[in-house]
Write a structure and sequence with these properties.
Helix content is about 90%, strand content about 0%. The protein has helices at about 10-80, 85-125. The protein is rod-shaped, with a radius of gyration of 34 Å. Pfam families: Phasin_2 (PF09361).
Length: about 130
């Protein structure tokens, strides 16, 4: 250890220790940033999957609503043209049966879409 008359000299061991400490702190910070970026990316991917699924469900709901309104108008036209009460009853039975079948199918499609969206969001969160 050499002393300079102008001041104090830091020993080499202390310089090495300080340099290693700074290097370790820098590496820890870099690792922290990488992990934070991964977490943010996972959240973004999960959010994207949920938004995509919600948009798909919105499109389906709008399409279903259009189908139901169209079916109701067709039913109304058929009812107006019916010749007697017996024909009206048959038209109504057929209309209700078709509507119930469609509602069942649409509920299954909604359920499938919701399940798929949840699975994609979960997968994105894990990756």
């Amino acid at each position: 250890m050499t002393a300079d008359k102008k001041g104090f000299e830091i020993p080499d061991q202390m310089r090495d220790f300080a340099e290693k400490s700074v290097d370790q702190a820098r590496k820890a910070f870099d690792d922290f940033i990488v992990m934070t970026q991964k977490a943010v990316s996972n959240v973004e991917e999960s959010t994207s999957a949920v938004q995509s699924g919600a948009a798909d469900m919105n499109r389906k709901a709008l399409g279903y609503a259009e189908e139901h309104v169209d079916a109701a108008f067709r039913f109304a036209q058929q009812m107006v043209r019916a010749k007697d009460v017996e024909e009206m009853m048959k038209l109504q039975q057929d209309y209700l049966r078709r509507q119930m079948e469609q509602l069942g199918e649409q509920a299954r499609e909604f359920s499938d879409t919701a399940t798929r969206t949840a699975q994609e969001a979960t997968k994105a969160a894990r990756d």
